[in-house]
Each structure stands twice: as structure tokens, then as C-alpha cells.
């Protein structure tokens, strides 16, 4: 029996050697005979390099096992498992304990790096200091800061952290093609930098990353929030991302519930998490500029949603940047950062799965009575949820202005979105009580 197991391991080792050679052969065999776009060629080579590196790593592990078999005491190999055991391990889901609370097994804990996009702001120190203050584990949440621009003072600040962070420097500082409008060159550089940085970090084979920027404040439960939502995102393929941001995160437009999360069809950004699988999809068609608006287009979103909180887990202090402070004075500086520490690991977030969320949310929306903005303003309603409907782009903007909500609309899909995903919540004070309000789209 032992001889058979030894033979099996030797066979695996030989197979891995063959695979390495085949991958190398394919890499050279498929070199294009004619001119191929440089970006396409780089992506192909990058993917082949990753595959070859993974196979070599497996080969090294096989050689280590063979060495142990030859030179050390007999290894105790695991007992044969039932045919369905592998699948059971692969799809193992959390069990509900203590009154329905989902507790994730320790074996399911992922390493989730944070990638900070930086350029020429020495105030990146404020953001990095907060990340290091609130992260519960250096090993589970490694921090990468990717710097564009080549700004020496910012680089000096980042190097001062030593091994607390990993400082990456974007090697491509070349100017943008002069055929592009000069006023947009900054946006082209940002898209170029994002793509490079994400490929660098995902080359370490992380299952997901958290992306932040150098001008963000983070909440005390920032890391717990992302750690708890990652299993939901991996389970539900209708989730494109998890975001820390709420576009309507001002004191008068939130419910002030630090545990409340929503599914949103609008990509919020400003502190967000995506999986490696999703990144490979996006990387293949990454735009030259305006990547965030591009991600909101129907072709990229593909009816997927982002999870976002009622109470923001990030706010921005970056008034000056590529956008020249657009929206900061009118909107961004009034955002409220959550200051309550939520024990996310003890919360059951399965309600965010599409099938359950859609049914529950539709029921809540349609069980609420319809109301007008005028009735809300006049205080004629009881402090209970109501439904406010809009029927066109113009009526949406009008209601948004009256209720103090963001009225930016990035694509026609936002206007024609379903009754479920078109809702945002608004808090008004009616007879001295905070009442939850739902703004509901019925335009199609």
C-alpha cells in the first residue's frame, strides 16, 4: 500500500514537470506571426507567466514531499474521503448558531490586502495612519501603497513606514498622447495607474482586494465590514463589488443605522472591494480613462450590484485633485463617517443574497403608502415609512433637489432601473421623530 502511494506521488511530480514544459512550449508556440496590439500581448504573457509560476510552485511542493519520503520517517497520508467530500469542503457554508448568527469557520478566512492609490499628496500619511490604526492583523490585511507621479516628498513619507506597508511605484510616468484633450490627461493617468497596480497586487493570487485612495478617512469598523461581506460577494455572482461609500451619506439623508446595508445598482467607489475573478474580466477591457464612469455602464455592470452601507465607512478630505474639487464644497465635505464599532463577524448578512433581498425589499416598498414631497414637508404624515415615486429623469432630479439627495445620473440604465434597485432612503423629521422615507423609481 505504501509503495502504491509513493508511486502515485512520483507520478504527480513527473506530471507537474510535463505541465511546466507544456506551458513553456505553448508560450513560445503561440507567439503571434503578425503585428498584435502591445496591450493584448502583455495580457497574454502575464496570464501565461502566472500559470507557469503556479505550476512551478506546485512542483516545488511535490519535490519537498518526495524528499521527505526518501529521507525521513513515513508520512501519514490522509485517509480516503467519500466521493462528495471534496465538494463539501469547497462549498462549505457557515452554520447558524446562537439564534441565527452566522459564524465563519477559521479555515475560511481570506487574506484581503488594501491597495492605496497615491500620487503627490503627502497627506497620504493621514489615510495610512488610520489604516494601520484600525486593521486588526498585518498578516490578514497587508497594505500596499501604489504611487504614481514620481513625487519625491510623498515617496519619502511612504518609505518612513518601513515594513508596515509595501510601497509600489508605477514605472510608467510617460506623458499622455497629445491627441487627448489636455484637461483630461489626469484621468488617463489614473486609469493607467489603477490597471498596473491591481495587476501587481493580484499577481500574488489574492482572492479579493480593497481599493482606497490617498485622501480618504476610514471608519473604525472598516476592516470588519469588508471581511464580513467578502463571503457574501463570493457566494452571489450578482454582486459586482462591496463599497464603503454612500453617495447620500449626509446626516439628513441617512437612517443612522450602522448595521444597515443595501444592494445598489450604482457603483459608489471611494473604498471598495472586488474579487480576482471580476478583475480578470474587467482587466481584459479596461478603459484608457474615466474608469469609474465606464464601470457604471450597462456593458460592464451586467445587472450586477454593489453592496453599500447606510452609514459611510469612508469620507474624503481631498478637496484638491484631478477633479479640481468638483462636488466637494456642495456635497462631499458634509458626509458622515460611521463612528460606531459594529461586530460584523456576529451578524447574519445572508439577507443580502439576491433571491432573499429582492423579495423582502419589494414587500417593504409596496407595503409603504405613497406620499408626495409636499406632504412630507408639511409634516402631515405619521413617522413611518412612505413611498415617493418619480416617473422621469426630470422628476427624479426635482425630487432629489427637494430632498437633498444626489441628482447625478450616469446612464439611462440608472433611470430605467427596476422598482427594487431604484430606491434610496431619506430621513426627515416629522413631528420631531426621524421617519424612514423611500424614493422609488417607476419610470421605464
How would you describe the overall organization of this protein?
This protein is an alpha/beta fold and 444 residues long. It is 39% helix and 16% strand. The protein is built from 14 helices and 15 strands. An eight-stranded mixed β-sheet has the order 5-4-3-6-10-8-11-9, with helices on both faces. It has a three-stranded mixed β-sheet with strand order 13-15-14. Helix 4 links the parallel strand 3 (114-118) and strand 4 (143-147). Helix 1 (2-29) packs antiparallel against helix 2 (38-71). The longest helix has 34 residues, at 38-71. 26% of the residues are buried.
Helix content: 25-40%
Order of helices and strands: HHHEEEHEHEHEEHEEEHHHEEHHEHHEE
- What is the CA-atom radius of gyration, in angstroms? 25 Å
**Low-pLDDT residue spans:** 72-107, 412-444
Strand order of the largest sheet: 5-4-3-6-10-8-11-9
Number of helices: 14
Question: Span from first to last CA?
Answer: 68 Å
Strand content is 15-25%
Number of strands: 15
Output mean pLDDT.
77
Characterize the overall form: globular
Largest sheet: 8 strands, mixed
Amino acid at each position: 500500500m505504501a509503495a502504491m502511494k509513493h508511486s502515485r506521488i512520483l507520478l504527480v511530480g513527473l506530471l507537474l514537470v510535463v505541465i511546466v514544459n507544456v506551458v513553456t512550449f505553448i508560450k513560445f508556440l503561440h507567439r503571434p506571426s503578425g503585428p498584435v496590439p502591445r496591450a493584448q500581448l502583455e495580457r497574454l504573457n502575464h496570464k501565461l507567466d502566472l500559470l507557469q509560476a503556479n505550476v512551478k510552485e506546485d512542483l516545488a511542493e511535490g519535490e519537498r514531499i518526495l524528499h521527505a519520503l526518501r529521507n525521513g520517517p513515513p508520512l501519514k497520508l490522509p485517509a480516503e474521503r467519500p466521493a462528495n467530500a471534496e465538494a463539501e469542503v469547497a462549498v462549505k457554508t457557515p452554520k447558524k448558531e446562537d439564534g441565527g448568527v452566522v459564524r465563519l469557520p477559521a479555515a475560511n478566512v481570506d487574506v484581503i490586502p488594501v491597495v492605496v492609490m497615491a500620487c503627490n499628496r503627502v497627506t497620504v500619511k493621514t489615510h495610512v495612519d488610520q489604516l494601520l490604526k484600525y486593521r486588526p492583523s498585518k498578516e490578514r490585511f497587508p497594505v500596499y501603497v501604489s504611487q504614481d507621479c514620481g513625487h519625491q516628498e510623498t515617496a519619502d513619507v511612504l518609505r518612513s513606514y518601513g515594513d508596515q506597508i509595501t510601497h509600489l511605484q508605477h514605472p510608467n510616468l510617460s506623458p499622455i498622447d497629445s491627441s487627448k484633450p489636455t484637461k483630461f490627461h489626469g484621468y488617463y493617468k489614473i486609469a493607467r495607474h489603477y490597471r498596473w497596480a491591481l495587476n501587481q497586487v493580484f499577481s500574488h493570487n489574492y482572492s479579493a482586494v480593497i481599493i482606497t485612495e490617498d485622501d480618504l478617512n476610514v471608519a473604525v469598523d472598516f476592516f470588519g465590514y469588508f471581511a464580513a461581506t467578502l463571503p457574501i460577494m463570493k457566494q452571489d455572482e450578482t454582486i459586482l463589488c462591496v463599497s464603503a461609500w454612500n453617495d447620500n451619506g449626509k446626516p439628513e439623508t441617512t437612517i443612522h443605522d450602522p448595521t444597515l446595508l443595501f444592494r445598489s445598482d450604482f457603483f459608489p467607489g471611494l473604498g471598495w472591494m472586488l474579487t480576482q475573478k471580476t478583475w480578470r474580466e474587467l482587466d481584459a477591457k479596461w478603459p484608457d480613462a474615466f474608469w469609474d464612469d465606464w464601470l457604471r455602464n450597462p456593458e460592464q455592470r451586467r445587472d450586477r450590484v454593489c453592496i453599500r452601507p447606510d452609514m459611510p465607512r469612508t469620507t474624503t478630505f481631498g478637496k484638491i485633485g484631478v477633479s479640481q474639487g468638483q462636488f466637494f464644497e456642495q456635497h462631499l465635505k458634509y458626509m458622515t463617517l460611521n463612528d460606531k464599532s459594529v461586530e460584523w463577524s456576529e451578524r447574519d448578512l445572508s439577507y443580502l443574497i439576491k433571491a432573499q433581498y429582492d423579495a423582502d425589499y419589494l414587500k417593504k416598498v409596496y407595503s409603504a403608502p405613497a406620499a408626495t414631497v409636499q406632504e412630507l414637508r408639511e409634516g402631515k404624515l405619521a413617522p413611518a415609512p412612505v413611498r415617493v415615486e418619480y416617473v422621469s429623469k426630470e422628476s427624479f432630479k426635482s425630487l432629489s433637489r427637494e430632498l437633498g439627495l444626489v441628482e447625478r445620473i450616469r446612464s439611462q440604465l440608472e433611470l430605467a432601473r427596476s422598482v427594487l434597485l431604484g430606491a434610496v432612503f431619506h430621513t426627515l423629521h416629522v413631528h420631531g421623530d426621524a421617519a424612514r422615507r423611500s424614493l422609488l423609481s417607476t419610470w421605464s
